[in-house]
Amino acid sequence: MVVEEKVTFCRICESLCGLVATVEDGQVTKLRPDKDHPLSLGYACPKGIAMTDLQNDTDRVLHPLRKNADGEFERVTWKEALDEISTRLRAVRDTTGPESIGWYMGNPGAFSYSHTIWVKGFLDAIGSPHYYSAGSQDVNNRFAASALLYGSPLVVPIPDLRRTKHLLIVGANPLVSHGSVLTAHRIRDQLMDITKRGGKVVVVDPRRSETAKAFEHVAINPDGDAWMLLSMLNVIFSEGLEDTAAIQAQSQGVELLRDAAAGYPPEATEERTGITPDTLRQMARELATAESAAVYGRTGSCLGRRGTLVSFLLDALNIVTGNLDSPGGAVFGRPPVALDEVADRFGLATYGSTRSRIGNFPDVLGNLPATLLAQEMETPGKRQIRAMFVSAGNPVLSVPDGNSLERALDKLDLMVSLDFYVNETNKHADFVLPATTFLERDDLPIAFLGFHSKPFVNYTHKVVEPAGEAREEWEIIEDLAKALGVTPSSVPPIRWLGKLGIKISPQRLADILVRTSGDGDLFGLRRKGLNLKKIAAQPHGIVLAEHVATGELGTKLRHKDGKVHLGPPEIAGELERIKTAAFEASDERPLQLIGLRELRSHNSWMHNSEILTRGGRSQPLHMNPLDAARFGVGEGARVKLASKSGEVEVPVTLTEDLVEGTVALAHGWGHKGGWQTANGLGGVNVNVLAPSGAEDIEPLAGMAFLNGIAVSVELVSAGSPAAASVSESVTAAPQRD
Ligand SMILES: Nc1nc2c(c(=O)[nH]1)N[C@H]1C(S)=C(S)[C@@H](COP(=O)(O)OP(=O)(O)OC[C@H]3O[C@@H](n4cnc5c(=O)[nH]c(N)nc54)[C@H](O)[C@@H]3O)O[C@H]1N2
Ligand SMILES: Nc1nc2c(c(=O)[nH]1)N[C@H]1C(S)=C(S)[C@@H](COP(=O)(O)OP(=O)(O)OC[C@H]3O[C@@H](n4cnc5c(=O)[nH]c(N)nc54)[C@H](O)[C@@H]3O)O[C@H]1N2
Ligand code: SF4
Ligand SMILES: [Mo]
To answer: Where does the signal sequence lie (predicted)?
Structure first.
């Protein structure tokens, strides 16, 4: 037997921890944390280790599958699959046009540079606007806010974790999520270090989350963030705590915020936020007077009704307190491949350059709101989606109103999925094409290079050859494009080369991007510069600098006046809208539902792992005992949880960690795909409770409304406490050394 050890890195979450794979006769038999990774230093979480379970899973799809007349999947050859898909795809294009072909790329797609670039390239080459991703359920509001503030959706500040003296976290739980829109290895340690050096971490969250428990917690009502942030601005302006010099040097339009904030003294927002005026004043003063401070928000600040406004205000706080682009503040990474610059070059840094057919929502980086997918498939007319591709995604479980999506998928002329499982979404496909895992492909994590709390770059070769007949997404896309006579690229010169039969591989493209970047070797002109080979030669990765650069704002701003725009009309509109915003909860639906991430789950796709489900798992509704008493519900009771859009039945677990009036349920459950262990776990699809009408979509970025949904709870049966007790312990596991 040939046994090898191969250095690589995990691509499940944005922490990108170093891993060492044991490979026996071409098969990965073990993954362990890489002690020699200069930043993750021998840390990996249970999911990274459990990836071997998925890699070798007997439920994995290893051959092309085609649905037969009985609705069952049967194995076919790649040639049969591609021939038939090509014929049917051409038929769709020729009858209803290329604009009736859509693609949804899920979250794991973002962890593969080739996958991401090729999907967008395919749609751009055929001329279809129907590009969807997990972004509209995750982060597009953050990008939209950046487009308004800085003039590019891809100019996104991160907290300078390694230097800050004060970190205000709004709606993120990095002790479980391990960080997002922020690549910070051993993030728990980096956060602990802030308090160790005399600084402070404050966590604003409706739940006393694992992170909130480790630091200072400010409890807030779901979706109360905009009011909280406006009140913080109110306190800062009315007490003269703003950094006038910084505001003047960096920005224009502050009057809008100053005027708006005047209407929100802390007393006026307490009912919305649940935060007492004293606490709020203290939060504002501490932030404004800290030696350095950074405000950081993640999904908890994105999935409410006003995500773009909230992201905008988070940055506004950084700016008015003089913390933008300065050490210990909110800083701009200077990555070896600067996405903002690359996207500018090819016109890809778009916001609002196309609009959705339904609802007229602006695109964000080409993405349209995935919440609209079912309607885009079912509403007749030009641009109606008739053929749909889904790669690395499970929108039936991750997008609002999964039931409607299931119905719509069945009515398509063609549905094709690229995945390594049959999941709840692609079970509706005509074809499931076997994709590689991240261990079976190379990677340069282009999407995340700019978000490292310490500038860093790494590249990995594939660890093993693809299992079975699995192929990389970009290779499959090349074949689909060939069938339509196009070269899958967003870049016209590459499409022209394609016409001449000259193909550019992902590796070649990555090399060009690295070599022409600020750190690149400029094809030999800069001898010490980087190229892909040099990066690959150091498999544990390369630390590029001790700290993220500051004083970068000038090079980042795309607005012609060279200023951050604090008063754009879009935000003025949102500030008007918020004035009359109704309370979400009502007598009929008195509670608000939020999400919950678990250490041993990853969205919808790791519930088939033996390691991660050992000892049993369940998906209880977390509920405050005071609310439970109000509804006559005890530990382990089964309840009907209903919103205006749907209902589910779940067991209850009681916890004082949630603010009164808020209940929490994890997403990514309720399996009925080809993953048998996952199917056996039970649970429900929480997103049948999320509304999918255009009126429920956030207007500036098309964000899904997933946090703060008004719900009612009704006792079904008293149940037994044991029913809920097998739920994952929600305390963060200690980091291993
Ligand atoms: N173990 C694990 N890790 C993951 C994932 C996973 O599924 N499992 N998923 C990955 C993905 S795709 C992402 S995008 C990241 C997300 O990374 P994070 O955003 O850091 O993770 P969440 O746990 O969603 O944290 C959101 C927090 O916001 C709180 N919250 C909910 N509503 C509100 C609100 O209205 N206001 C405020 N202030 N807070 C609110 C929630 O209680 C929760 O604690 O995590 C990634 N990492
Ligand atoms: N209620 C609620 N809903 C949410 C959220 C929430 O907090 N609350 N969070 C939202 C967020 S932040 C996200 S990112 C989304 C995630 O939602 P999605 O991106 O739609 O779905 P995932 O659960 O990530 O499913 C990923 C699929 O990709 C497959 N896969 C994994 N790796 C690869 C690969 O390398 N190649 C291919 N081809 N396939 C692969 C898996 O088998 C799985 O079928 O969920 C969103 N939905
Ligand atoms: S924290 Fe876990 S899932 Fe995230 S990169 Fe590290 S090992 Fe992978
Ligand atoms: Mo996400």
So the answer is: none
> What CA–CA distance (Å, rounded) separates 233 from 315?
11
Cα–Cα distance for residue pair 264/578, rounded to 1 Å: 11
Tell how far the Cα of 602 is from the centroid of ligand 2, in angstroms: 8
Query: Using a 6 Å cutoff on CB, does residue 204 contact ligand 1?
Result: yes
Pocket test for ligand 1, best of 141, 170, 205 (most atoms within 8 A of CB): 205
Burial of 245 from C-beta contacts in 10 A (0-12 / 13-18 / 19+): exposed
Please report the atom of ligand 2 found closest to the CA of residue 139: 12
CA 111 to CA 116: how far, in whole Å?
8
- The burial of 413, by beta-carbon neighbours within 10 Å (0-12 exposed, 13-18 middle, 19 or more buried), is given as middle
678 C-alpha vs ligand 4 centroid, how far in Å?
20
**Residues 463-514: tens digit of each pLDDT:** 999 999 999 999 999 999 999 999 999 999 999 999 999 999 999 999 999 9
For the chain, where do the domains classified as CATH 2.20.25 start and end? 3-49
Spell out a b/e string for 547-567, using b for 16 or more CB atoms within 10 Å of the CB, else e.
Answer: ebebebbeebbbbeeebbbbb
Ligand nearest to the CA of 179: 1
Say what the pTM is: 0.97
3-state helix, strand, coil split of the chain in percent (to 5) is 35, 20, 45
**Class of 140-333+552-578 per CATH?**
alpha beta
CA–centroid distance, 134 to ligand 4, in Å, is 7
pLDDT tens, residue by residue, 344-384: 988 999 999 999 999 999 999 999 999 999 999 999 999 99
Look at ligand 1, atom 33, and give the residue with the nearest C-alpha. Answer: 300
Instruction: Tell me the CB-side half-sphere exposure of residue 343, using CA atoms within 13 A.
Output: 23
Q: DSSP letter at 380?
A: -
CATH assignment of 3-49? 2.20.25
CA-proximal residue: ligand 3, atom 5 (nearest) = 16
Strands (E), 347-437: 351-355, 362-364, 387-391, 414-419, 431-434
Is any ligand 2 atom within 6 A of the Cβ of residue 398?
yes
- Listed in order, the ranges of the chain carrying CATH 2.40.40.20 are 582-731
Residue 612 alpha carbon to ligand 3 centre in Å = 13
Nearest alpha carbon, ligand 3 atom 6:
17
Could you report the per-residue pLDDT of 222-238, keeping only the tens digit for each? 999 999 999 999 999 99
Is the shortest distance between the CB of 667 and ligand 2 below 6 Å?
A: yes
Question: Within the chain, which residue ranges are assigned CATH 3.40.228.10?
Answer: 140-333+552-578
Does 583 have pLDDT greater than 50? yes
- Right CATH number for 582-731 from 3.40.250.10, 1.20.140.10, 2.40.40.20, 3.40.50.2300? 2.40.40.20
Residue 709 Cα to ligand 4 midpoint, Å, equals 19
Query: Looking at the CA of 47, which ligand is closest?
Result: 3
* Residue 333 confidence (pLDDT): 87
Q: Which ligand is in closest contact with the Cα of 12? A: 3
Span from the CA of 18 to the centroid of ligand 3 (angstroms): 9
Give CA angle at 704 (701, 709), nearest 5°.
Answer: 135
∠245-248-254 over CA atoms, to 5°? 120
Choice from 8, 9, 11, 12 to test ligand 3 binding pocket (greatest atom count within 8 A of CB): 12
Alpha carbon distance 314, 724 (integer Å): 36
